[in-house]
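Pipeline run #58 for the internal structure catalog. This entry was flagged by the ingest filter as a single-chain record with no existing model, so it goes straight to prediction. Upstream metadata was stripped on purpose; only the residue string is passed forward. Reviewer on rotation: M.T. Logging verbosity set to normal.
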Amino acid sequence: MRPEPRAWDIEGPVQAEVFVVWLHGQRIELTGPCGAAPWLLELGHADHPVEVVDRIVRDQLGEPLLVHSTSWRRDREAVILSFVVVIGAELVAAMESLPVERVELARSEATAAPRTIAHGQVLEHALRHLAWLSTDDTVVAAILSPDWRAALSRYTPEPFRALG
């Protein structure tokens, strides 16, 4: 006879970590209300994360081109849901903006998460994910301009590289 599986639940806060990016010429830049840093939003117990991120971006910045969840992790005593939000150049206005620099991904073990994950690594993962979607997902491909797809082409997705 098998033992009953243990019930589990997520306790503690859930936060959305929002990376607002835009295309400055041929260069992807990070911007947002927090400057060139991720924007952290607290999510309520019953909130749908994508809807909250979309609504707050619309309210604070204007209509985004794309809102996409890319990863999650446990940090700062919360579950962190990471989002990449693509906006048009017209929405940047006076917000601080810096070019996105390439970084090495945070690598995990086969059954364990990386010990530390820096913001730049989360954004690197998000842009690689977006690069893959721009060629594989018809909705994303239709939303992103040829200039966006060209900028993302430098982000070669590398699924399962660490396991190879």
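catalog note: The radius of gyration is 17 Å.
catalog note: The chain has a mean pLDDT of 89.
status: ready for reviewer M.T.
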